[in-house]
Design a protein that fits this description.
Layout: H1 6-9, H2 20-27, E1 35-39, E2 44-52, E3 59-65, E4 72-76, H3 77-81, E5 83-86, E6 89-92, E7 94-98
Antiparallel strand pairs: 1-2, 1-7, 2-3, 3-4, 5-6
Length: 99
C-alpha cells in the first residue's frame, strides 16, 4: 500500500510532527488539540474546544481571535481541518502552532 501524502488525505493539522489529520479520518477521532493556530491568511486564533450543534450532530470548533476585540467564532470541524489551494499549492486552513 502506497503511503499517502497529507494533501491526498485532505487535512491540515500537524501536532508535534504527527499527522493527526490522517488519524482523524482513519479512526474517526473527532477531537482537536486545544491551543494556538494560525489561519492561512496569517491571523492567529486560540481553539477553546469542540461543541456540538444543538439541532444536528455536527461538531463545531469554538475559537477566539488573538487580535482586535478577541471575538469568539465557530466553524464546522471538517472545514477547520481542511486544506485550501493557494497559487496551486494545498496548505492547511489552520496550522497548529502551540498549546
Amino acid at each position: 500500500m502506497a503511503r499517502r501524502s497529507f494533501s491526498e488525505v485532505g487535512h491540515a493539522v500537524v501536532l508535534r510532527g504527527l499527522p493527526i489529520e490522517i488519524m482523524y479520518y482513519k479512526n474517526m477521532i473527532k477531537k482537536l488539540p486545544l491551543g494556538k493556530y494560525e489561519h492561512y491568511k496569517g491571523k492567529q486564533y486560540e481553539v477553546i474546544g469542540v461543541a456540538k450543534h444543538s439541532e444536528t450532530p455536527e461538531e463545531l470548533v469554538v475559537y477566539r481571535a488573538l487580535y482586535g476585540d478577541n471575538g469568539l467564532w465557530v466553524r464546522p470541524l471538517k472545514m477547520f481541518l481542511e486544506t485550501v489551494e493557494i497559487e496551486g499549492k494545498k496548505i492547511p486552513r489552520f496550522k497548529f502552532i502551540e498549546n
